[in-house]
Automatic annotation (TrEMBL):
This is 3-isopropylmalate dehydratase small subunit. Belongs to the LeuD family. LeuD type 1 subfamily. Pathway: Amino-acid biosynthesis; L-leucine biosynthesis; L-leucine from 3-methyl-2-oxobutanoate: step 2/4. It comes from the Bacteria. It comes from Alcaligenes ammonioxydans. Gene3D superfamilies: Aconitase, domain 4. Residues 9-134 form the Aconitase A/isopropylmalate dehydratase small subunit swivel domain. It catalyses: (2R,3S)-3-isopropylmalate = (2S)-2-isopropylmalate.
Length: 214
C-alpha cells in the first residue's frame, strides 16, 4: 500500500482563506463524518462557511445556497489546488477526516504560518503538503493574491520552492517526510519494505521458541 501519487510539483492559483485558528470542525463539520472511506467528503468541506443554508448528509448540492463571499466560491478558486491561510490551521479535534475532505476537494498544498501538530502529521500521512512560512511571507502572499487572483504559482517539492509573480520562496520540509511524499510512501508501505527482515525475525523466533507457535 502507498499514497495514491508521488508528489513532485503543483502549479495552481491560490485560494486565499484569510482566517486564523481554523479548526477541524470548520474544515469538516462532525455530522459529515459518516464513513472511513477517505473519499466523498470534498462536497462538505467548509460547509458552514461555503453555504448560506444549513446542510445535512445527502442533501443535494443543487438545493444548496452558496455563500458568494466565501473564498471557495470565487471564480478564481475553481480548480485551484493550493490553499493559503493563517496561523494555527487545523486546530481542534484530531479528526483525520478534515484532511480527507481537503484532498477530496482537490487541495494538495496548504500554506500558513503554523499548523496544529496532529493535523500537520495527518497531512503528511495522506499525501497533502503543509508549507510553513513566516507571517510576513504569508501577509505578502495574501496581498499579491488580492491584486492578482488569477496568477498561478508553482510548488516544487524537489527544490522546496514556491514560485509565482514574485521571487521564489524557499520552504523547509523534514527530509524523511519530503522523501515519503516524493516516493508516494505511507507508514504501511515503509513497513512493507522491511518484509524480508520481518520474515527472517519470525523464522528465528520459531526456531528459538517453537512452543509459542504450536
Amino acid at each position: 500500500m502507498s499514497l495514491n501519487t508521488a508528489f513532485t510539483s503543483v502549479r495552481s492559483r491560490l485560494i486565499a482563506l484569510d482566517r486564523a485558528n481554523v479548526d477541524t470542525d470548520a474544515i469538516l463539520p462532525k455530522q459529515y463524518m459518516t464513513s472511513l472511506s477517505r473519499t466523498g467528503f470534498g462536497p462538505y468541506a467548509f460547509d458552514n462557511w461555503r453555504y448560506a443554508d444549513i446542510g445535512y448528509p445527502g442533501k443535494p448540492r443543487a438545493e444548496r445556497e452558496p455563500n458568494s463571499r466565501f473564498c471557495l466560491n470565487q471564480p478564481s478558486a475553481q480548480g485551484a489546488r493550493i490553499l493559503l491561510t493563517r496561523e494555527n490551521f487545523g486546530c481542534g479535534s484530531s479528526r483525520e477526516h478534515a484532511v480527507w475532505a481537503l484532498k477530496d476537494l482537490g487541495i494538495v498544498v496548504l500554506i500558513a504560518p503554523s499548523f496544529a501538530d496532529i493535523f500537520r502529521n495527518n497531512c503528511f500521512k495522506n499525501g497533502l503538503l503543509p508549507i510553513t512560512l513566516s507571517t510576513a511571507q504569508v501577509d505578502a502572499l495574501f496581498a499579491t493574491v488580492a491584486r492578482h487572483p488569477w496568477d498561478e504559482w508553482t510548488v516544487d517539492l524537489q527544490a522546496c520552492t514556491l514560485s509565482g509573480p514574485q521571487p521564489p520562496i524557499l520552504f523547509h520540509v523534514e527530509p524523511e517526510r519530503r522523501r515519503r511524499l516524493l516516493l508516494a510512501l505511507d507508514d504501511i508501505s515503509i513497513t512493507e519494505q522491511k518484509q524480508a527482515m520481518i520474515q527472517a525475525y519470525e523464522e528465528k523466533r520459531k526456531r528459538q521458541e517453537p512452543w509459542l507457535f504450536s
